[in-house]
Request: fold
Amino acid sequence: MPRIDKRIKGFILWELEHYPESKQQIEQYRNDIITAKDYTIDGQPRGTDTGDPTARKVEKIERSAYIRQTEQTIEAIERVLNRQPPEKIKAIDLMYWRGTHTAAGAGMEVGAVERTVYRWIDKVVISIAKELGYITCQKGVKNEG
Reply:
């Protein structure tokens, strides 16, 4: 298993832990842009904006670095999670998304020991890092999902 810089690991663990909230926030942000009122007090056009308010909203969504980065991260997490067996997903859910169990407790729920749960999480983190391009698979290193 390739080594991963602890700062990158910390970042990815944070993103994994906040994955459900990030999905909700990005959807809310898009909806806020879409449903925002696009008018002036007297109804007269101002400035040099495009006359089409829908086009302005689409452009704002497409140009948002926040949306691009968050969607890229969410998609990477989803690609990795879709390749995982249900017991790994459940352990991640219990530890990170619900926050109700430690690694030992999550392991008891899925029939694994604490160390195994930590190994699963390490492999998931490394896979997400690869998906995001933070690390690359080196020659001779087994690519594990």
